[in-house]
Amino acid sequence: MSRFSALSLLRGAISGHKNVEPQWPNSELKSEYDVVIIGAGGHGLGAAYYLAKEHGVTNTAVIDKGWLGGGNTGRNTTIIRSNYLYDESARLYDHAVDLWDGLSQELNYNVMFSQRGVMMLAHNVHDVQSFKRHIHSNRLNGVDNVWLSPEQAKAKCPPLNISSTARYPVMGAAFQQRAGTARHDAVAWGYARAAAARGVDIVQNCPVVRISRGADGAVNGVETARGFVKAKKVAVSAAGGTSVIMDTAGVRLPLESYPLQALVSEPVKPVCPGVVMSNTVHAYISQSDKGELVIGSGTDQYVSYSQRGGLPLIEHTLAAICEVFPSFRRMRMLRKWGGVVDVTPDRSPILGKTPVGGLYLNCGWGTGGFKATPGSAHVFAHTIAKDEPHPINAPFTLSRFETGRLIDEAAAAAVAH
Amino acid sequence: MNNNTSLESLPATGRFSLRCKEQNIAVLSRALGLALPTKISLQVAANGRTALMLGPDEWVLSCECDDRPAIKEALAKVCESAPHSLTDISSRERSIRVKGREAAALLNTSCPRNLAELPSGRGVRTIFDSVQVILTREETDQYRLDIWCSFFPHVHALLSAANAEFKSGV
Amino acid sequence: MLLIRCPYCAETLPELEFEYSGEAHIARPQNPSDEPDDQWKDYLFIRSNVRGEHAEQWRHTHGCGRYFNALRNTVSDKFITTYPMGETRPDINCAGEEKNEQLAR
Amino acid sequence: MNNWRVKGKGRINTNKTVSFTFDGTAYKGYEGDTVASALLANGVHLMGRSFKYHRPRGPVTAGSEEPNALIGTSRAGQGQFEPNTKATTQEIYQGLITTSQNKWPSLNFDIGEINDRLYRLFAAGFYYKTFMWPKSFWDKLYEPVIRATAGLGKAPSHDDPDTYASRYLHTDLLIVGAGPAGLAAALTAMKSGADVVLVDENPELGGSLLFENATTLNDQACDEWLAKAVAELAAAPNVRVLTRATAIGYYHENMVGVAEKLTDHLTRVPDGAPRERMWRIRAKEVILAQGAIERPLVFGNNDRPGVLMASAAQTYLNRFGVKVGDCAAVVTTHDSAWFAAFDLADAGVKIPVIVDLRQDASQDLQRGAAERGIAVRLGHTVATVKGRKRASGITICEVNAGSQSDAVSSIACDTVLMSGGWTPSLHLFSHTKGSLIWDEENEVFLPGEKTERCHIAGAGRGLWGQQQAFDDGKHAALEALSALGQSATPNAVNVRGDRTGTGVVMEELPGAGGGSAPRAFVDFQNDVCAKDIRLAVREGMRSIEHVKRFTTTGMATDQGKLSNMNGLKIAAKQLECPVPAVGLTTFRPPYTPTTFGSFAGYHKGELFEVTRKTNIDSWAEENAAVFESVSLWRRARYFPKVGEDMDAAVLRECRQTRASVGMFDASTLGKIEVVGPDAAEFMNRIYTNPWSKLAPGRCRYGLMLGEDGFIRDDGVIGRISQDRFHVTTTTGGAARVLTMMEHFLQTEWPELDVWLTSTTEQWSTIALNGPNARKVLEPFVTDADLSAEAFPHMALKECLVAGFEARVFRVSFTGELGFEVNVPAEHGRALWELLHEEGQKHGLCVYGTEAMHVMRAEKGYIIVGQETDGTVTPADAGLTWAIGKKKPDFVGKRSLSRPDMLQADRKQLIGLLTEDPNTVLEEGAQIVEVGDTAIPAKMLGHVTSSYWSSALNRSIALALVEGGHHRDGGAVDIPMPGKTHRANVTGTVFYDPEGERLNM
Ligand SMILES: Cc1cc2nc3c(=O)[nH]c(=O)nc-3n(C[C@H](O)[C@H](O)[C@H](O)COP(=O)(O)OP(=O)(O)OC[C@H]3O[C@@H](n4cnc5c(N)ncnc54)[C@H](O)[C@@H]3O)c2cc1C
Ligand SMILES: NC(=O)c1ccc[n+]([C@@H]2O[C@H](COP(=O)([O-])OP(=O)(O)OC[C@H]3O[C@@H](n4cnc5c(N)ncnc54)[C@H](O)[C@@H]3O)[C@@H](O)[C@H]2O)c1
Ligand SMILES: Cc1cc2nc3c(=O)[nH]c(=O)nc-3n(C[C@H](O)[C@H](O)[C@H](O)COP(=O)(O)O)c2cc1C
Ligand SMILES: [Zn+2]
To answer: Residue with the nearest Cα to atom 33 of ligand 1?
Structure first.
């Protein structure tokens, strides 16, 4: 596969892009693989890439029921940060941030990782205490996260309303400079292209309907819409469909799937430099490189796979945005959409082995797994290749729900995205 | 559009939350001197006392403020034979009356219910904006909202804003 | 915004009056202390998370206040039926082969 | 002025002149004009610049599907700036200020146009392939430049002064769209008993009748019939008509969001009038009569100002009385453009040619052209448009088996009208996840299976022509009425002179291919050309979703209303795949971009969210309290005297309370009355503590866990009588606790005879604490003995306080002698004032939440949510004593014996005393083993509470620390930026460990 570069682009421009080749081939499904990964989101594609690159496992298929990157990877608000409270989480997400930094070069694909910073607003005394706790914990974990006064926050994001008479005044903010956003589609495409270049088959529009187990109880393949495929190992990275597919392997999970909505405004010239999150008023916002304000809403209360979501949430989200940014009231919503997020009881992912031999599980990222993509994919590949977890994902077991060692970022009043 | 909707804050009254299982309704009714309604949203009044059924085991009793000891006493007498809960909530809530040709439309600025389906004389617990209220349709174009005190200013402010909007004629 | 029929009020009302309360028919063990860890975990956390007909609890919080159960299709978000707390799940058959179809989105 | 007005044409009010400005120049139009129609009437076509290439653009449509003519608008003297407004829908009013966008320094001369020369570098997806070297340039150079060039208009820079409204509306039948189909439906339903709502995004009803008005309807001129129909509907009591009202989204269960513009067309806005209103209309039946959108043709330079949709030209003429040019060439694959040409010709516009790609056209059409002296070129195509800021001509050639023939001829013109046929508007239908079916013959997607109770009528079903639309609308109404159990006897509308047409659908026009040919635009705003789409497919973007995301086609502010079908056709051809197999991308709400404000509705400022205040809050406000917000409540945090900061005020409040007496408004604590013969049993199950033996008149600290074993809430609970408990909860936990109790009661233990009632707001709660507390209270209590003997710690009494019926608890959250007096809420402030006055004799001070926090920390009392965070067990918090050991079960008990809940390394609550007594640790500071401060550090826990203690005259802290209960007497380090503090581990009770002061 040819390399992308300014020069190749120029050459293409001169030739009228005559010699372009597909970024990934339209692979046919073979009858047997060493590893089948279910789900061609960023996590699944990334795992395939790292399996090939770091573990030499290339006889891999990534199978998706739809088009690659069409799950939550393609519909999230792209917030990346690692200022999580607990050591386990901080290590996992910070591993990801380390990999984000340099991912474009690694993949030879500009994923537009942009470290414009993430600011989390504190609106009451409790928020202040909670964020300070995060900041101190982050500092000692080597994760950057600093406290900003309201004025400093406004200096970083001028449209912010810091009036002390606001219903939810800004009392300060936690700010992570290394945090930011990335171009979601490019992440899926970049991994797909790089994985395909190393021989991975990416099979689209092919639902996996059953995980098959042999007489010894271990997995031996998957049933797909295009027939049975033998596999030594099966890795599930099927956000939004995890419970359903894992059920076919006889593994029931502590997951519930909720609709999560997001929206974009019409594009405008730069007005919102970094990412601003307010957990208390429930508003998340950033501005994409194209100019739209990208705004995250909440989950509807009920389990749903409809990728829809209701109007009241959007109304609440935009009311909150307008409180925090009163000048945006005259901005317009261009499009809103929904995704399906798998949520665990402690809001932390499950990433590792399962009770079934040869079956590996990556799920439960809820509303915040995009940021983890390279880190999660990297340690998941390790887990699949070595049949044992990487130290970073070792705490994120399925068994923690039985023993009680939860990693409860939500309870610790962390924010979701 | 000619606006003639009025908002009126009502004086305090006596209010109780009354709870009991179905089999004891008759005994409590007798003690109260009022046949507790047995269909949600129905309201029955007798002897200056009103009972509105809010849930399958729940009524709100309204009365004159100084009728409260009598009610307590009457029900205390049947406590053994008809277990129930009687809790004074007179101070918990305040009421507002919305009256006029556009009362329903005004309420529908923040209440998602179809008010046409609430006949006169009935009441339900529902939601107004983010606030739980008891909404009673007193007459065709007259409604009463019972609101927990700390939510009262919010509801009142919303209704006033909507009223100003109606007055503007747009 | 969904419309939900409260079996107690016998009225179909806006979702805003209701609160979702998770999967239905997960009974609390009679004697929790006798439960082994893995079964207690099942009670606490394991959910069927069905793509299709899902039995679930709702509460008519801003109405009669009652909890009740519902069957709802989680793909279309449509309610199939609601029924009072304590009743068993109605036996309403949905089309066969649902799993494959579900997986195909 | 208005040189391009046509006398006798148009529906605008030529008696009323309106002036407005565009880029600083004043223009005049008439009432009823849009910005676009008024500018066109002044000969202005250049209205904007495209997103990527900054190409000059003019309006291509006359409606809400406009991708090009986007402007900024504001109100003279008042700001209210708004970007990206469609000039084609913004009505003009006196004083309207409009500006062009995405240009510098001016619309006419725009430096950004350089991009247009470099277009080959900016091929689809180019940014994914470059800007990666050197790495550091991305953040510092590339991205900032990309960001600065992106975006269209500028975001508003001032707070929006306007207000917004919303409303729920229930109706039997909602009709979206008031063209012939929607009107027929409304006129039919009007005759039934059903309630009907008819909405249209335009300022007036009529839809396509506003421009396609040459017909005769029931023997009346079209305009005349329309006026009558509108009047009839307005007079019908069961019909509500909303204009300027766009159905933006079709949500679950037939709820349609309708955004209504109320004032943006008015010169003078009435007082109190909101700018927009969001209707949430819940209809039993819905008729979607959204019509169809004319499809552009894809050919070289098809984006030049002066190139318009044929129906747009017709609209400007027939609705606004404006001719879009003097000389308009026509390019089409559909009959309807011929009719547009005829209308324009009849109004005096020269039509030099009609170029139709089809080999044949009906005799009628050809006759019509001949009568008007219009040259016709069948089987021809347009190669390109000449001119830059305005079309100046076209080159045409023969369509020869799909490829370009050599014989190119040029035709001069100042305007080009195009029509590639029509696309049924099924956006709202698609929001419902209704399926679309490909109609092979007409090459359109039509509605398939429905998921909601809706009916599609008119052009939305691929029915062209007014007669069909009227008939279909009527039919849809009858269908909907019958579903409603209603009926009506409709009046027929007979159309004479209907101009129904047919056509074919093209992808890119054959003349446009080839490497050096000028670019042919598919998505105008986002500058996506046909070759970009082909390139995307060649790069492996085989799904239409990938094509969309790679090229951004359909992602502009018109959301592909003009581009989706052309993009799809081109992609399908490149993929060698049938159109339906490729499929459409998903339509999502809103139908047209909708202001944030209209979604937010009334929720602005004070009305954004409830602020709950206690009955005593007003006193605090009058007495200069500083407030904090705790869940929805606002609470007095401290009461500074002149010159005091928080520390000074809190110090004083603590000192005075411990020295004499302090008073605190505790009304926000949640209260629940638990009543019934099984009340104690219920309490036993819900709380960890035992309750059976608690005697009436006594109270007890209660601890509540979640089923997972972690602390959820706590509070003092009094037993009023055998079957009645007065439960208190935390301020923030009140609703949650009641919900959890109800859940268990209703779903697990329905057999219990017990009922729960929230009494939070029934009571005002005043806490009196301090050695003199009794002295302050006693004078007001005549029917009870408050002495230590008669009223010991953890007792309660129902008595009169100052004549108010009260429940008095003898409890303390400060460690001092304490009373909590509950009186009916409305008397709270009165009692407060009485006690305050009486207290002055003893130097009573009023304290806020901050002093309360300090004093309880001195006593080691936890605050749920501060010492706990949802991961703390009773044992962790040192509260094992609160667990009823003999109880077989309570909520959360089983979880406490899970393996990880018993580990010795759990984080446990301890006290910390810094080595330097003057150091007050920061709450949230992390704790490590002594000396173990290298980063990354192994953290043992964190400081949960930390204060300066006036009672101890030093700092104190509480902390959750790994294995903390075994660390007593040891030391830990607290590394802070610049300095590491050392602290000694102690018990959690710093003050009066024996509790003697409680019993004074
Ligand atoms: C609206 C929204 C906003 C969000 N915002 C953020 C944010 O700001 N920051 C952040 O970090 N995270 C965010 N998230 C979460 C984030 O998007 C996800 O956690 C993350 O993208 C998950 O990636 P993935 O690769 O695991 O899953 P996905 O990208 O969802 O990929 C899973 C794939 O599995 C496929 N699949 C499922 N079942 C099957 C089957 N049976 N057979 C074959 N294929 C199957 C699906 O088609 C899908 O393509 C957001 C999510 C949403 C919905
Ligand atoms: N000559 C031809 O070949 C041809 C082709 C197509 C259509 N037509 C004409 O189109 C007409 C079809 O009539 P019709 O009634 O189906 O359509 P119409 O276009 O006349 O009316 C549709 C109306 O709905 C409005 N609308 C669309 N979406 C809306 C939304 N979301 N919210 C609010 N309003 C919305 C439009 O602005 C318009 O006013 C006929 O008159 C027919 O002659 C003709
Ligand atoms: C970060 C981000 C930015 C987006 N920007 C746009 C945009 O500018 N225009 C647009 O039409 N859609 C935009 N979308 C939304 C997509 O069009 C699409 O709605 C989303 O990926 C979900 O897919 P679906 O709507 O096809 O289900 C954006 C999505 C994301 C995640
Ligand atoms: Zn109910």
So the answer is: A39
